[in-house]
Structure formats: structure tokens, C-alpha cells
Amino acid sequence: MSRIQLALNVSDLASSVEFYRTLFRTDPHKQRPGYANFEIADPPLKLVLIETDTESRGTGTPGALNHLGVEVVDTAAVHEATARLQEGDLATSVEEAVVCCHARQEKVWVHDPAGTPWEFYTVTDDDPRLIEVGPAAGSAGCCA
What we know:
Layout: E1 3-10, H1 13-24, E2 30-32, E3 35-40, E4 45-51, E5 65-71, H2 75-87, E6 93-100, E7 103-111, E8 117-125
């Protein structure tokens, strides 16, 4: 199953979690300091909340869009998306075995004409025990 991912910058994670818990009638799938994600069945959506302030927000605007994504079923689907995007002459950035959003992932990034970041990704380990936070993971272990 593929689903759209919407990653939002939020200034107050606790109140945002409560809002989206009520809005979509579901509890967070994963919650860490400064981070939460929801796996919503109806509508099929991966909602990611990234607590930010002006200095550390990474991409996007505080209280607004951080990035968009399409979660796909496996690494082969990421490779297929990469090939399709490259064949369409879109500039891609591939990340393999990266820890992002508190999970190990395979992904490819592109930017739309306005600069909005999109990722096609799959989670290969949803709870890595030894998280190595690196430049791709951002300061909160999230996509930035």
C-alpha cells in the first residue's frame, strides 16, 4: 500500500498531537521528543509533526509545510520511482539506509518548481536501536 505523507512544522507538539488525534480519531503511531507520526487509515495518510522553532526548523516555514512524501511498500518501489523521476529529467537525491524520523529508510528526493521537497520512501526498520543522527537526519532525527 502506498500513501501520501504530509510533514508539518509545529510550534507545540503536545497540542498538535491532541488536535490531530481528535481530527483523525487515531493515536500516534510513534512519538518521540519533538516528533510524532500518525498512520491514518481513512483517508490513507502518513501525518508527521516536527516541533520546530525559527532557528532549528530546517526546511519549510514554522507552523506550515515541512515536506511531502509518498510512502511505498518496499525498496524496489523506491528504485522504480528513482528511475522514473530521472527518466523525466528531474534532479534527484538518493538516500540509502538513512535514519530519518526515528526510522531507517531508503528514499529519493525531488523538488517541485517552487522548491517544495517531495520524497518517495520506504521504512526498512521502524525502531532502529542504534540511531546515528547525521546530516540527513537533522537535529531532531527527522527529515529536514
